Fold this sequence. Notes:
Layout: E1 16-19, H1 25-36, E2 40-45, H2 48-60, E3 66-70, H3 76-89, E4 95-97, H4 104-107, H5 114-118, H6 126-133, H7 140-155, H8 159-162, H9 169-188, E5 196-198, H10 215-226, E6 237-239, E7 242-244
Helix pairs in contact: 1-10
Amino acid sequence: IWKQCGIHDEHIFIRIAVVTGGNKGIGLEVCRQLASKGITVVLTARNEKRGSAAVQELKQAGLHNVIFHQLDITDSPGIDQLADFLKGHFGKIDILVNNAALGAVEYIEDAAISSATSEPEQLKNEELKRELDDIEKLTEKDLDEMLATYLKDFEAGALEARGWPMHFSAYRMGQIAMNAYSRMIARRQPGLRINCANPGYVKTDISVYSGTLTPAEGASNLLKVLLLPEGGPTGKYFDDGKEAPFV
Length: 247
């Protein structure tokens, strides 16, 4: 989206944030906390009815600088429509929060997710860890090959032997790939600050409401990253608001 938005002088002093999956949980709280700081928030959600209801909830709380726009993150024409809307109304994005998740509830069925957030290491395979850490050489092709190998090992029942994550394995591998890709984008776009952040173990539907933090507390951890000062870190991973290792 941000690639398609230029800068208009009349909006240069207005901070604009776009939050995907902003109709509930952490996404809604991120919208609330950003708006409370005077930032204009474009709350997006796949379900128009739920997204509009979330905006009304925030406006009833006195936050009138929140706008709804429908967005399905898997729909390319819909993404283009949002980009056109942002370009026409604001001409820029200052903050983009990629919060929306795909099918989170379907694959996490019980409160044992705590093990997925407390496991000290995601990858045990040292060769893979070195490859992921070498961001200067890491490419999309490398990531694709890594994920293809993971799928083969998954089908062969060889995850533990190969050092792949064992707890909520597919979910963790998605996180690892996303984090690595964000670093590649950060390397190519040095004028932007692009970071990944884990809000902590939050009570939301993805954790079957078994977390230790409220959505507001999780959102607060994210805002520590979203509101980093000009010239702040980029291409980094943050856990509970603090910089942490990627793998």
